[in-house]
Sequence to fold (196 residues):
Amino acid sequence: MAEDPTQARFPDLEQGDGGYESWYLKACSPEEPIGVWIRYTTHKRRGEPARGSLWFTLFDTRAEGPYAAKVTPPAEQLGAPQGEWVHIGDSLLRAGRASGSALEASWDLHFEGTGEPLWHLPRSWMYRAPLPKTKLLTPEPEATFSGTVRAGGRELELRDWPGMVGHNWGAQHAERWIWMHGTGFDGRGGDTWLDA
Fold:
């Protein structure tokens, strides 16, 4: 498929259009039961400017529950300048880099992918057509993350945590969503992953 799997679609929405778009990343510790999920998302109601939100979740199976934060800066703090996939407030996502904050959570991560993008839809025209109303793909199905995450009074140093970067968009958010991504299978290398 020839399209750029990370290209922002929200800047091309017309004033009367509605839509959403999200880029999300997941990274899990190879040694401890800890993982992070970060989402950069845009939402545009018909007749209104698009707005961006940042979602952050830290999962630790030893804790009583996940630590989660969400923030929605003013609409004028959303963009996709040259060289960035998306920029929301002080947070940015681009090739090889994710940084930002959501309330008390912050992150400064570098990532490297080694595989080809996973195009979930079977035909390239389906990414341009009105149906399906939700498009999804995984630009980096096998990535490693390094850097720092601060959340819930903790500071985590990530060193080559396996994970992924996903991207979805459309005119309508799916009513139901089930998603799974797995890495780190016993007896397999870092190039073995499952995204469903």
Q: What stands out?
A: DSSP finds no helices and 14 strands in the chain.
